[in-house]
From TrEMBL:
The MurNAc-LAA domain, residue ranges: 449-558
Source domain of life: Bacteria
Signal peptide residues on this chain, from the entry's feature table: none
SUPFAM superfamilies, sorted: Zn-dependent exopeptidases (SSF53187)
Keyword Hydrolase appears in the UniProt entry: yes
GO CC, alphabetical: outer membrane-bounded periplasmic space
Recorded coiled-coil stretches: none
InterPro entries per UniProt: MurNAc-LAA_cat, N-acetylmuramoyl_amidase_3
GO molecular function: N-acetylmuramoyl-L-alanine amidase activity
Protein name from the UniProt record: N-acetylmuramoyl-L-alanine amidase
Enzyme class: hydrolase
UniProt keyword NAD, yes or no: no
Species of origin: Thermoflavifilum aggregans
Length: 566
C-alpha cells in the first residue's frame, strides 16, 4: 500500500512488464526508440547487453538505437538467486522515404484549409499535389501549378499553388486537379475536402450553449487551438466563413476569430450586422464586489486580459464605437481605482479597469439585458492562508486515466491521492477547501467548472502529472497559467516545487487548459512531475516525497499571499 492506494505487487521471481511500447513487434520510422516498464524490485535488468537502472519501484526506462530493417531487442531480468527472464521486442525500422511517384499518377493532394470550407472573397486556398515528376498540373480555372524541386535532394513531382477566391467564384464541392504528361495524356483527381462559396449577403450568428468561446485560429495541439475568450450566450456577431466544425466570425475590419458551429446559431437572412454606439457607463460597488456596467444596446463579442503589477483588467468590445460622455463612478467601489475608455481601432473599444492592488483576484463578465457587466473581485480582507477558501481539482478520474507510469501507476489515482493529502494539510492549517472530486469518478470540464462557479473559491489549484514519449530525458516539475495577472500564484508554487529537487520543466504561460481559462479567481495548474519518467514516478510513489510536495505547494501559497500583503 502507498498512502492508502493499492499498487501492483509482484513476487521476486523475475519478470518484465512493458509499458512502452505497447506491443513486442512493431514497425517504426524513427531510429531512436524508448522502452519503459517494470520488473521485480531488486532485479538486474540488461537491455542488449547493457545494464539499465531499476528503481526502487521496479520501474525502468531504456533507449535503443536501430538500423534499417529488423531489430530484435533482448531484455533480461535476473534476480539475486540467478533466475532470469528474457523478453524480446522486434522493431522493424523503416526510415522515412520521400514519396516518389514512378507511374503516371496523382498520389496525394493536400490543401489548406484542410477541411471542408465555405470561403469568402479574398480567402486563399493553398494546394500541394504529389504526382509523377516532369508533368504539367492544373486546377481552378485551368490555372497551372508550379512543380517544386527540393535543392537538397532534387526531389521532383511536387506541384503547388495558391488561389485567391474572387467575388465571381462559385465553388461547389471538391476541386478537380488535372495532370498532363509529355505525351499529352491526362488524368484527373479531386481534393479530399470540398470548397463552397460563402453567401454574398451578410450572415449573423448568436452564441448558444454552455461556455461558448472564440479561438484565435484553426491551429491545434493536444489541448485544441488557443482560445481567445469565453463568451456569454445571446451575443451577436457577423459570420463570414466556415471551416469544418468552426464558423469564422468578423470582429472588426481586420480581426477574425473562430467559434464552434455548435455554439453559434445562424439568424434569419437579413438580420443586420451587430453594431453599437456605446452609451453611459456606471462604476459602483456593493458589500462583496465592484462593478463596471457598459451600456451597449446589443450583446457584442468581447475578450478580456488580466494583468498584475499594476493590477489591471482590460475588456475589449468588438463592433462598437464610443459616444460615452458619462462614466459615473461611485464611492462604494473598494477595488477599482479608475476606469478609462480607449478606441483602439475601427469598431474596437477597450475598457481599462485599473485596480488598487497590484494583484488582481479575478472578474466575471456577463450581460444583464443589453449591458455588459464586469464584476470585479476584491482582494480578500485577510490574506492569511487560514482565512481563504481554496479549491483543489484532482485531474482526470474514472474512465479518463491520464498518464501511466512504468510500473502501471495511473495519473488519475495519484492526482486524487495528492489532492486528498493537500486537502488534509490545508484543513489542518484551518483553510476551508473545496474538492472537485473525492473519488474515482469521471467529471467533464464543464462539470468541474459548474462546481467551481457555485463554490466561488478565492484560489484554484489543479493537480496533474505530466507525460512524455521520452521516459529518460524528459522529467521535472512545471506550473501553468493563462492570464498574465495570475502568473504570480503559479510562479510562487513553481519556485517551491523546484526546491524539492525536481528538475525544472518551466513556468508556462498562455496555457490553454480549460480551468486556466477561468477569469473568476487566480488559478494554477500544477504538473507535479513526469509520471512516465521512472525516477519521477518513484518520487511520487514515495509518501515522504509527496509530503515534500504538499509542503512546497502550501509554502508557495504563503509566498504568494505574502507578496500580496506588500
Amino acid at each position: 500500500m502507498i498512502g492508502g492506494m493499492a499498487l501492483p505487487s509482484y513476487a521476486q521471481r523475475p519478470f518484465i512488464r512493458l509499458q512502452q511500447p505497447g506491443r513486442i513487434t512493431l514497425v517504426v520510422h524513427d531510429s531512436v526508440q524508448y522502452i519503459s516498464g517494470a520488473t521485480c524490485k531488486g532485479c538486474q535488468l540488461i537491455v542488449q547487453d547493457t545494464p539499465v537502472r531499476v528503481y526502487t519501484t521496479g520501474g525502468f526506462a531504456a533507449r535503443v538505437y536501430l538500423h534499417a530493417g529488423e531489430n530484435p531487442i533482448v531484455l533480461q531480468a535476473r534476480n539475486k538467486e540467478g533466475l532470469a527472464y528474457n523478453l524480446q521486442i522486434v522493431y522493424r525500422y523503416e526510415p522515412p522515404q520521400p514519396i516518389a511517384v514512378r507511374d503516371f499518377a496523382i498520389a496525394r493532394i493536400y490543401t489548406n484549409p484542410g477541411v471542408t470550407s465555405w470561403l469568402a472573397p479574398g480567402d486563399i486556398i493553398h494546394i500541394r499535389v504529389i504526382a509523377q515528376a516532369g508533368c504539367k498540373a492544373f486546377w481552378l480555372h485551368h490555372l497551372p501549378l508550379t512543380e517544386m524541386v527540393n535543392q537538397e535532394d532534387s526531389l521532383a513531382g511536387i506541384y503547388e499553388g495558391n488561389y485567391q477566391v474572387s467575388a465571381t467564384d462559385l465553388l461547389n464541392g471538391p476541386i478537380q486537379i488535372m495532370l498532363q504528361n509529355a505525351a499529352g495524356q491526362t488524368i484527373t483527381a479531386y481534393t479530399p475536402n470540398a470548397f463552397y462559396t460563402w453567401p454574398a449577403s451578410a450572415v449573423v450568428g448568436k452564441t448558444t450553449g454552455d461556455r461558448p468561446f472564440m479561438q484565435y485560429s484553426l491551429g491545434e495541439d493536444r489541448l485544441g487551438a488557443a482560445k481567445r475568450s469565453y463568451l456569454d450566450t445571446g451575443i451577436c456577431m457577423q459570420v463570414d466563413g466556415q471551416f469544418g466544425d468552426f464558423y469564422r466570425v468578423k470582429l472588426a475590419p481586420d480581426q477574425h476569430a473562430y467559434v464552434p458551429v455548435e455554439n453559434l446559431q445562424l439568424l434569419p437572412e437579413g438580420t443586420p450586422i451587430p453594431h453599437a454606439t456605446l452609451g453611459s457607463w456606471k462604476v459602483w460597488g456593493d458589500s462583496l464586489y465592484d462593478y463596471v456596467q457598459i451600456q451597449t444596446g446589443i450583446r457584442l463579442p468581447y475578450d478580456v486580459q488580466i494583468y498584475d503589477h499594476p493590477g489591471q483588467i482590460i475588456v475589449r468590445l468588438y463592433g462598437a464605437v464610443s459616444n460615452t460622455n458619462w462614466i459615473f463612478q461611485y464611492l462604494s467601489v473598494k477595488e477599482i481605482s479608475q476606469v478609462h475608455l480607449h478606441t483602439v481601432a475601427d469598431g474596437v473599444v477597450e475598457a481599462h479597469i485599473n485596480l488598487k492592488h497590484p494583484q488582481p483576484w479575478g472578474c466575471i463578465l456577463q450581460y444583464a439585458g443589453s449591458a455588459l457587466v464586469v464584476k470585479v473581485k476584491r482582494q480578500p480582507a485577510n490574506l492569511n492562508l487560514a482565512h481563504l477558501r481554496i479549491a483543489i481539482d484532482a485531474g482526470h478520474g474514472g474512465s479518463n486515466t491520464g498518464a501511466t507510469g512504468p510500473t502501471g501507476a495511473k495519473e488519475k489515482d495519484l492526482t486524487l491521492l495528492l489532492a486528498k493529502e493537500l486537502n488534509a494539510a490545508l484543513q489542518h492549517a484551518g483553510v476551508q477547501t473545496i474538492m472537485t472530486r473525492t473519488n474515482d469518478t469521471s467529471l467533464s470540464m464543464q462539470e468541474r467548472e459548474n462546481l467551481l462557479y457555485q463554490a466561488d473559491p478565492d484560489l484554484l489549484l489543479s493537480i496533474h502529472l505530466n507525460a512524455s514519449n521520452n521516459p529518460i530525458d524528459i522529467s521535472g516539475t512545471s506550473t501553468y497559467y493563462h492570464y498574465a495577472g495570475f502568473r504570480p500564484l503559479s510562479l510562487a508554487i513553481y519556485h517551491r516545487l523546484v526546491a524539492t529537487g525536481l528538475q525544472e520543466f518551466g513556468n508556462i504561460g498562455n496555457f490553454n487548459f480549460a480551468l486556466n481559462g477561468l477569469t473568476d479567481f487566480p488559478n494554477a495548474l500544477i504538473e507535479v512531475a513526469f509520471l512516465t519518467n521512472p525516477a519521477d514516478e518513484a518520487r511520487i510513489l514515495n509518501p515522504a516525497f509527496r509530503e515534500k510536495i504538499i509542503h512546497a505547494i502550501i509554502s508557495g501559497l504563503k509566498d504568494f499571499l505574502d507578496e500580496c500583503k506588500k
